[in-house]
Amino acid sequence: MSAVPRFEKPGKVEKPSGRFRRMLDRLSSSREDLESEELQEDSQASGCTRISECTDRQIVKVTGTLRTVTLRPRAGVPALEAELFDGTAPLDVVWLGRRSIAGIEPGRKLIASGRIAMSHGRRVLFNPKYELRPLGKE
């Protein structure tokens, strides 16, 4: 064995190489970390933009899981608000003039597309086109 140091690219995180090492990492990771990693993989596999990479006024297609769904009036108009999370960052999804939408509930996965807006430092998607993911795949 030689003591030659391995040079790695800066900023690149190496995944555990062995099966046993990966299993140990999964066992020592928190449930939130595992869910977050799974959501990020799902987002990448579906060809969607990561929420953390979305900028103001950008047209995007994102996917994730709805964490919360609330009815909150905006300027006297009913508005259904949901928080979408893809493992990288949250995104507020708002349907103006709606009190409820069938299938929009916490824990449901969906794909949403539209133009990102910034409101009070948070990313918001108003009246997006959306596609509910099948319940069997969750």
Tags for this entry?
alpha+beta, 5-stranded mixed barrel, about 140 residues, single chain
Task: Please give the largest β-sheet.
Answer: 5 strands, mixed, barrel
H/E element string?
A: HHEEEEEE
The average pLDDT score comes to 83
First-last Cα distance: 47 Å
How many helices?
2
Helix content: 10-25%
Give the low-pLDDT segments.
Answer: 5-13
Tell me the fraction of residues in β-strands, as a range.
25-35%
Describe this structure as you would to a colleague.
By secondary structure, this protein is an alpha+beta fold. The chain is 18% helix and 34% strand. It is built from 2 helices and 6 strands, in the order H-H-E-E-E-E-E-E. It has helices at 19-28, 31-45, and strands at residues 59-71, 79-85, 90-96, 109-119, 122-126, 129-132. It has a 5-stranded mixed β-barrel. Strand 1 (59-71) and strand 2 form a beta hairpin. It starts with 18 loop residues before the first helix and ends in a 6-residue tail after the last strand.
SSE layout:
Layout (H helix, E strand, L loop, with lengths): L18 H10 L2 H15 L13 E13 L7 E7 L4 E7 L12 E11 L2 E5 L2 E4 L6
